[in-house]
Amino acid sequence: MARYSVIHEGMALDTRLDTASLRPALDGAERRRWLFENLPLDPVHRDWLRQRAWVRTVHGTTRIEGNTLSDLEVEQLLEGAAGRTLPRKDALEVLGTRSALELADEIARNPQVAVDQATIREIHRRVLDGQSPLLTPGEYRRGENRVGTPTGEIIFTTPPSGDVPELMRALAEWLAVDHGIPVPIRAALAHLEFVAIHPFNDGNGRTARILSRLLLIRGGYALDGLVSLDAWFDIMRSDYFAAIRASIGRSYVPGYDATPFAGFFLAAISGAADHVLARIRAMGEIQIKVRRDVISGTLPPAMFDALVYAWISRSLRAADYRRITGRTAPSTTRDLGAAVSLCYLIAEGVSRDRWYRLGPRLLETPATGEPADPRESTPRA
Fold first, then answer.
1. Which neighbouring-strand residues pair with 70?
2. Which of 14, 148, 182, 362 has the fewest beta carbons closer than 10 A?
3. Predicted structure pTM score
4. What is residue 83's predicted lDDT score, i.e. its pLDDT?
């Protein structure tokens, strides 16, 4: 078992890791990285898949912390097109998280910017931007804290607040040196140590996931922007929390065994990547099915790309259809009506709030690659 430890004036980032047991999972993540670097995709479909991954990332990382917005509401909010008043707290969480993610992605692609305490503090400040000043954005906590699930179950207790500045200094100094650790393991260790320290009053989970995303992108594991690791963490939420607990135990003590969480993290990279690959394969089947109806004349040709978009985005609006196809408003109404009559889409809502969810003919396409989630693409009543 390897022990990764970097000493700075008596302080250390000190964890144990069974590297041999992680090798198969690490090799699996590396295979997916190579595959996504060489994945042949239509450029337009690639852009749609990237946008979907972005929405799922913002949605997933906030929902882990109890945010109640659906993915459709998150998408509309991010586009400035929310059709109804959303809960203020939830909306601010989404917008703050978007700002923090945008900053992290910009930093990830600029190696001249160090991932230091100032960077981490600014990411956290943006996560909580516009919310209560009592949360002290960007400032280390001065009281004790416990880490729990949104249901109130305690996962572990954190170190005393007086230890936080030195622990964060040690983490930042560790991040400043490469150490020869494979990128996914480095991202997993940073995520876990940050969560274990829990340096802020709130927003620690989102900041930890953004930090690991930053390290993955900077290290060449962007997976072409097509994969949402945060959405996979949300889907596998119980396993995610269990892996943190298995590594840290009931309370933070340096020298903990990071192997359980690192193993989960590596498997999550592969699971999230396989989800996207399965959806891409299913997208090919959708195209074959829709093409037949276009050739037979039962669907307008413009609906070919629109239904691919709907399949990727999990929903479709009239404005989306007009933007994709350039069709007029009357033609859009007729075309969407044809798709509904053939059970490709199901209309929901009325007037300006109308949107279309996937119908049976799209949903019957097998292999989405992820566990079913009935909350996806379901706006509040």
1. none
2. 148
3. 0.90
4. 56
